[in-house]
Specification:
The protein is α/β, with parallel strands linked by helices. The protein has 6 helices and 7 strands, in the order ββαβαβαβαααββ. The two termini are 24 Å apart.
């Protein structure tokens, strides 16, 4: 569930990427922070609750947790063991009237089942990101799409929240920092 990706100091960090991406999207932030860096790996078998429980059991105490997009929803479940939480481009729920509807997400699931390459190219465009998705195995992608459809954050606690003004996937809500750009541009504001 967790992989240590770098050790340049003792402060623990946990990086939780978004749908279809892995820890490498945080390379720039990892390179500038001395510490012990851990990252999550997506699961094809577990539901979101079980996935978060396994991460909680394995993660170091007092971790600085950063989650991007779907990773932000996971990060919010890890607050009991985190010393700080940063949530990037993650709304209270993924499907909402001002963004991606349930019908649009179901259509995307059908496209993914039929043509993963086409679906991932479309998703990369939605993210407004130069880097192609790094997680490409269909069972994991379909499972984590179910998580996108079902998650709901009921309380933000003291999480730092960063949203992009031109995000095609998530609408900024509540007290947050707003930055220029699209869904992936928040990764530059860590």
């Amino acid at each position: 569930m967790l992989t240590r990706v770098a050790k340049t100091g003792s402060k623990p960090y946990l990086w939780v990427p978004g749908f279809a991406y892995d820890w490498r999207i945080f390379n720039q932030a990892i390179a500038t922070r001395p510490g012990e860096h851990w990252a999550t790996q997506w699961s094809a078998e577990l539901d979101l609750h079980s996935y978060c429980e396994q991460i909680l059991a394995a993660m170091p105490e007092n971790c600085a947790v950063t989650g991007w997009s779907l990773g932000g929803a996971v990060a919010m479940q890890l607050i009991p063991k985190s010393c700080s939480t940063t949530v990037l481009a993650c709304g209270q729920r993924f499907c909402h009237p001002q963004g991606i509807s349930n019908a649009a997400l179901r259509a995307f699931k059908r496209l993914l089942a039929r043509s993963p390459e086409e679906a991932l190219a479309r998703f990369q465009t939605w993210c407004d990101y130069d880097t192609a998705p790094q997680v490409t195995d269909k069972p994991t992608l379909l499972n984590t799409l179910d998580w996108l459809e079902k998650y709901e954050i009921t309380h933000w606690h003291n999480a730092r929240r960063v949203y992009a003004k031109q995000d095609k996937l998530v609408i900024a809500e509540g007290h947050c920092e707003l930055v220029e750009g699209g869904h992936a541009s928040v990764l530059e504001h860590l």
